[in-house]
Design a protein that fits this description.
With 78 residues, this protein is mostly helical. It is 42% helix and 0% strand. The radius of gyration is 16 Å and the shape is elongated.
Length: 78
Amino acid sequence: MKRLFNHHMGLMAANDRLPGHLLEPLPEGGSAGYVSPFEEMKAAYYAACGWDPAIGRPTRDALAALGLQGLADEVWGS
């Protein structure tokens, strides 16, 4: 429901991002030079949730699995 509300308010997958400093490699330590593959992790999370990978909106199937079939037409159109 929260995700559907966010989409209703105009938030899309492009709004799901991390602050820039979390996407920069650390200069030292055990993780020095490593940058998390955020876009890959985001895609995997969307897939696990049953969300459309391009826009981050719950798919019709995901809504049906949650018992929210009535919202599918409102969200995706007839």
